[in-house]
Amino acid sequence: MLKAVILIGGPQKGTRFRPLSLDTPKPLFPVAGLPMIQHHIEACVKVENLKEIIILGYYPVSELAQFINDMTQEYKINIRYLQEYTALGTAGGIYHFRDQIRCGNPEVFIVLNGDVCADFPLTDMVEAHKARESSALITVMATEATRQQSLIYGCIVEDKMTNSITHYVEKPSTFVSPLINCGAYVCSIAIFQIIAAAFTKKQEQYYSEGHENGNGVAGKEAIQLEQDILMPLAGTGRAFVYTTTRWWSQLKTAGSAIYANRHYLQLYRKQGHTERLLQGDQPNVIGDVYVHPTASVHPTAVLGPNVSIGPNVVVGPGARIRESILLEGVHIEDHSVILQSIVGKSCTVGAWARVEGTPCDPNPNKPFAKMDNVPLFNADGRLNPSISILGCNVSVPAEVILLNSIVLPYKELTRSFKNEIIL
């Protein structure tokens, strides 16, 4: 028997995802028509003998209750949300709820960070981990990055003969290895002994130093899987790496949601979920497009490639939408253009208006997206070109152009903007 754990953090995290996370918990933000962590659940339920999925975070239970109920009904598997009382870190929550994870004596358990998206090779990872029998405590999913990109991730040095991790550094200041941690793990139950030792060490440090560090409860109980567990395990022959060439990306910024949307739509086609896509033989549909059944799209509107349209969206005659996500209740009026943008809930874009952004990564065929080391502002204080984002309930009047800009919720624009944050 196997279990899976999905780590979703809480509302204090994910600030780079604003304003989209102001009205929707980030883990429930829809990418390719499904809440972000539903893609994780779909990957998990394909693993043989997986009996339970536990979601850990410190969002209020009320914000996820309906989602958990819907997922349990849809996938016919036991799914639970366990709320941390404070931010406990990527390993602290696992340790805090260790009894619930160990209940039923699972052979191994899968751990997935909620802010990564990928074509997860979970079955292959589990088989590779179990093949090492008692020697493996943890197997880490990894992929290759460029030298420059690797500096913003956890870097792994691998023994090519045994695939064991010989060295691990989180966000190094100089180049260590092109192999980076993807935030997906397979763990043996014995890993809890290592986490317990790290927890005890934290407690001893906290009480020996007193309260001078000002970290409060987090200072003595927050445990990071990367720094506190993987780094000490490196070189012991108990931590291993599983390298994948499949698509993978972090989902920390709104711009990366556009990238993830593109790849999840492609994954639908690859995995045979063609019922989720508009069929490409329609003259006004280009490439992969998802349209919610309740949305209304005029037959003269041109959609695609890589477009997701949410519930109760109305798209008027002659509109053009490409490489974009339209959330619930959006109204796009006649002959408007939406390119490389995310339009928040209940927004209105007037006739002949144009909302356009710039792709965050000019090469969409890279194995993953280089998103997180691009500064938000340039030297003169202007917003760097990126995708355009409309928060919820924004009104864009007719014949207005919005280029590479972010608009906070409940704004009514009166003119055109370029490279600005509209507060």
UniProtKB/TrEMBL annotation:
Leader sequence segment: none
Residues annotated as domain Mannose-1-phosphate guanyltransferase C-terminal: 285-422
Domain Nucleotidyl transferase: 3-211
Xref: InterPro entries: GMPPB_C (IPR056729), Mannose-1P_guanyltransferase (IPR050486), NTP_transferase_dom (IPR005835), Nucleotide-diphossugar_trans (IPR029044)
Annotated family: Belongs to the transferase hexapeptide repeat family.
Official protein name in the record: Nucleotidyl transferase domain-containing protein
